[in-house]
Write a sequence for this structure.
């Protein structure tokens, strides 16, 4: 692989990672906006904390 190909591959990989991060951010925002999901998440976190405190 020559230098130009290596640079091209690095740029494509970087763009792919950035795109994936943006997709994850959109998914997280959607989950945070879902009140039912947030309530369930808090209930699970509370349960996990109570189990940790007992052990």
């Amino acid at each position: 692989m020559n230098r130009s190909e290596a640079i091209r591959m690095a740029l494509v990989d970087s763009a792919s990672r950035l795109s994936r991060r943006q997709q994850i951010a959109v998914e997280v925002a959607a989950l945070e906006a879902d009140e039912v999901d947030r309530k369930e998440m808090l209930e699970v976190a509370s349960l996990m904390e109570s189990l940790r405190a007992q052990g």
Remarks:
- The chain is about 95% helix and 0% strand.
- Helices lie at 3-33, 35-54.
- The radius of gyration is 20 Å.
